[in-house]
From TrEMBL:
Pfam families reported for this sequence: SQS_PSY (PF00494)
Keywords assigned: Carotenoid biosynthesis, Transferase
Cofactor(s) of this protein: ATP
Native source species: Rhodoferax lacus
One of the GO BP terms on file: carotenoid biosynthetic process
The protein's name: Phytoene/squalene synthase family protein
Length: 352
C-alpha cells in the first residue's frame, strides 16, 4: 500500500481536525490528551465516521449511499483511496494499524438503521444499535492504541455503548421532533405513554423523565464496567479515555441537575467544567486499576469482539503461511490434525 507524502498527510490531518472541532467538542477535548502516535489516527477515524454518518443521514437513496461508502472502503483497504481527505487519512490508519474492516461495516449498518427510522422494542435491542454506531468506535480506538485483547476490546465497546446511551438521553426531544425514537417501546408501554401522540407533540412528562433516568442509570453501569478496561490501555492513552468517559458521564449528571428535561433544551457541559475534568483525569489516570474478575461482555457487542479476534487469527495465519491462499491454509491445518491423530494412535499401538 502506498504511503502518503508528509505534505499530503499534514493537509489531510488539518482538514480532519476542522471536522472534529465543528462536530464532537467532547471528543476533540479528550483527544488533546492522547499521545501523538495515536492522536492523528483517532482524528482521521473520527472524520471518516462523521462524513459517512452525514452522507447516509442526508436522505435520498439510502441503499445507494451505503453502497457508495462500501465501495470507498473497498478502495481504502485496497490501498487506492479516493481523493477525499477523510479517505486518504483513513487509508493511512488502515495501513499502519491493520484496522479490522468488519468494525467499519458494522458502523455503516448502524447508520443504515438510523436512516430507515428503525425503532427498538427492548433495552437489548437498543444495545444492538449502540454497539454498531458507538461500540465500534470504542473498539477501533482501542485497536489503534495497541490493545487488542478480548477483554480490553469488550470494555472499550461497552464504553462506546454507554456514551451513546448518554447521547440518546440528552437528545430525546430533538430526536422526537425529527420523528426518531430510541427509548425502548416496552419501557414506553409500561409507563403508559402513547407513542404516536407523544411523537406528535413531545413534552417533558414525569413518565419521560423516569425513562430518561433509566437510560442514564444503564449508561452509568456501563461506565463503571468499562473503567477496568482503561487500566489495561497503554499508560500514555489512559488519561484521554478517562477524560472522555468522565465528560460524557458529566452530561448525564448535568441532565439530572436540570430535572431530566431533555425535551425543551439540550444539556451541555461548560468549557470550564470540561477543563476541570480534563485536569482531574490527567491526575487520576495513573491510579486506575484493573480487576482479575470481570463481567462477561455485553451480549450486543460479542459479535464485534469475535470479529476482531478472527481478524487477529487471520493475520497470524497470513504471517505463518505467507504464500498460501486461505483454502490451502485450512487444508494444511486439517492435514496437520490428521497427522497428529495418526501419530497418537501409533503411540498407543506400540505402548508408548
Amino acid at each position: 500500500m502506498p504511503t502518503a507524502s508528509p505534505e499530503y498527510a499534514a493537509r489531510d490531518l488539518k482538514a480532519c481536525i476542522a471536522m472534529m472541532q465543528g462536530g464532537s467538542k467532547t471528543f476533540f477535548a479528550a483527544s488533546r490528551l492522547l499521545p501523538l502516535r495515536v492522536r492523528a489516527a483517532s482524528i482521521a477515524l473520527y472524520a471518516f465516521c462523521r462524513v459517512a454518518d452525514d452522507l447516509v443521514d442526508e436522505g435520498g437513496n439510502v441503499d445507494a449511499n451505503l453502497q457508495m461508502l462500501r465501495q470507498r472502503l473497498d478502495l481504502i483497504y485496497a490501498g487506492t483511496p479516493s481523493d477525499s481527505v477523510e479517505d486518504q487519512a483513513l487509508a493511512i490508519v488502515v495501513q499502519q494499524h491493520q484496522l479490522p474492516r468488519m468494525l467499519l461495516d458494522a458502523l455503516l449498518e448502524g447508520f443504515a438503521w438510523d436512516a430507515t427510522g428503525r425503532r427498538y422494542d427492548t433495552l437489548e435491542d437498543l444495545h444492538g444499535y449502540c454497539a454498531r454506531v458507538a461500540g465500534t468506535v470504542g473498539a477501533m480506538m482501542c485497536w489503534i492504541m495497541g490493545s487488542q485483547s478480548e477483554r480490553t476490546l469488550a470494555r472499550a465497546c461497552e464504553l462506546g455503548v454507554a456514551m451513546q446511551l448518554t447521547n440518546i438521553a440528552r437528545d430525546i426531544g430533538e430526536d422526537a421532533r425529527n420523528g426518531r425514537l430510541y427509548l425502548p417501546r416496552v419501557w414506553l408501554q409500561e409507563a403508559g405513554v402513547d407513542v404516536r401522540k407523544w411523537l406528535a407533540d413531545p413534552v417533558s412528562t414525569a413518565a419521560i423523565q423516569t425513562l430518561t433516568e433509566r437510560l442514564l442509570a444503564e449508561a452509568d453501569t456501563l461506565y463503571a464496567q468499562a473503567q477496568a478496561g482503561i487500566a489495561e490501555l497503554p499508560p500514555d492513552c489512559r488519561a484521554a479515555i478517562l477524560a472522555a468517559s468522565t465528560i460524557y458521564g458529566e452530561i448525564g449528571q448535568q441532565l439530572r441537575r436540570e430535572g431530566l428535561d431533555s425535551i425543551h433544551h439540550r444539556t451541555v457541559v461548560s468549557t470550564r467544567r470540561k477543563l476541570v475534568l480534563l485536569a482531574t483525569s490527567w491526575a487520576q489516570a495513573g491510579w486506575i486499576t484493573t480487576r482479575t474478575a470481570q463481567p462477561a461482555p455485553l451480549a450486543a457487542i460479542r459479535f464485534l469482539i469475535a470479529g476482531c479476534q478472527a481478524d487477529v487469527l487471520e493475520r497470524q495465519a497470513q504471517a505463518y503461511f505467507p504464500n498460501r491462499a486461505m483454502p490451502q491454509r485450512v487444508e494444511w491445518v486439517f492435514g496437520l490434525l490428521e497427522r497428529l491423530e495418526n501419530a497418537k494412535r501409533e503411540r498407543k499401538v506400540v505402548g508408548v
